[in-house]
Amino acid sequence: MEKKIISIADELRRSISLPFEGKLVGGNGAGRAVATKGKLVMEKKTLSAAAGILEAMKGFDCSGNTHMLHPRLDVRTVKLLNSFKLASGIDMNRFIAFSIHYLFQKHPELKTYIKQTLENFEL
């Protein structure tokens, strides 16, 4: 018989993804989840939006990137990103790289601002 070695992180991810009994309380209702009969039921809008973003993040190729940044994040953000990694398997570097790329893609006026500022810059 072949035994499979499972890391603690894999075991945590698996246990987090399993359905549970009870109700989650709190939040503003936008991403509120209620567990009923062992199944996690989330609002369809929140679930489909999260699934789309997760798929985009998983498909985001940052393997060719060689430059490293060392962002300074507050404790709450780091804890949230660590929890996100456990829940989705997407690490902080991919999350941050995707988020910055997405920000510039959705707000091209930032690129325009940068170009205009550098054109008008005098030494």
What tags apply to this protein structure?
123 residues; mainly alpha; two-stranded antiparallel sheet; 54% helix; 7% strand
Please give the order of strands in the largest beta sheet: 1-2
End-to-end Cα distance = 72 Å
Main sheet overview: 2 strands, antiparallel
In helices, the fraction of residues equals 40-55%
Computed over alpha carbons, the radius of gyration is 20 Å
Give the tally of β-strands.
2
Can you give the mean pLDDT?
A: 76
Based on CA inertia axes, which overall geometry fits? elongated
Q: Which structural class fits the helix and strand makeup?
A: mainly alpha
Unreliable spans:
19-32
> How do the helices and strands follow one another from N- to C-terminus?
HEEHHHH
The domain count comes to: 2
Q: Give the DSSP E fraction (strand runs of 2 or more residues).
A: 5-15%
- How many helices? The count is 5
Structure commentary:
There is one protein chain. With 123 residues, the chain is mostly helical. The chain folds into two domains: 1-42, no CATH class; 61-123. Helix content is 54%, strand content 7%. It is built from five helices and two strands, in the order αββαααα. It has helices at 8-17, 44-59, 75-88, 92-106, 109-119, and strands spanning 33-36, 39-42. Strands 1-2 form a two-stranded antiparallel ribbon. The longest helix has 16 residues, at 44-59. The protein is elongated, with a radius of gyration of 20 Å. The chain starts with 7 loop residues before the first helix and ends with a helix.
